[in-house]
Amino acid sequence: MRVFTVLILAAALGACATSLDTHVDHDPRQVFTAYHTYAWIRDDPQIRAAGSDYQVSALNRRRVVEAVDAELAAKGFAKVMNRESADFTVAYTIGARDKIDAQSYPAPYDGRWNWGRRYFGQEVNIQSYVEGTLAIDIFDRRSHQPVWHGWAKKRVTAEDKERAEEQINAAVKTLLKDFPPR
Question: Is 12 in a helix, a strand, or coil?
């Protein structure tokens, strides 16, 4: 029974490690009910950090655009080709970075354990992984100011890479779930 409990706990922690962590922020002064149409901020709407050499495949860039278009259309927003006639514009950022997670248990402990022995050591567990991020930004077209920002982060597994379209669609759907803010 104890082994079964440990396996269940390990599976639950593994699921948490690869779950989508999302956050959104918006300008509370913005009147989102006035928005009916949108356009992409430019022909290639991906925002890249200055000096960044991270490359996103053309296929994944297209998947992000299609997922955002589908979600906004489902919410009743009409896409227009002329940016000047749109109520808001959309851009996105996508990328990945290597991360390191270091855990130690217990902290150096110089005391008696319940079974009568003294413990003087420290167990350190170090894991390296890739964290993927997708951010969507919405700008008021008239003022050119940012009014909404959402980002999703996830530990990327080999399986995630094989199912990139599914992962992108899930991230976009989750991010835009409560857009426009009420």
Answer: helix
Q: pTM score, two decimals?
A: 0.76
Is 6 within a domain? no
What is the DSSP secondary structure assignment for residue 83, as one 8-state letter? G
**Distances, alpha carbon 95 to alpha carbons 53, 62, 168, in Å:** 10, 14, 12
Read off the tokens for 51. 């000096």
Write the pLDDT tens digit of every residue in 7-63.
333 333 344 445 889 999 999 999 999 999 999 999 888 888 776 666 788 899 999
> Quick check: is 2 in a domain?
no
User: How many angstroms separate the first and last alpha carbons of the chain?
Assistant: 48
Q: Please enumerate in sequence order all residues whose Cβ is within 8 A of that of 143, keeping only pairs 6 or more positions apart, or say none.
A: none
Strand 37-40 and strand 21-26: the pairing is unpaired
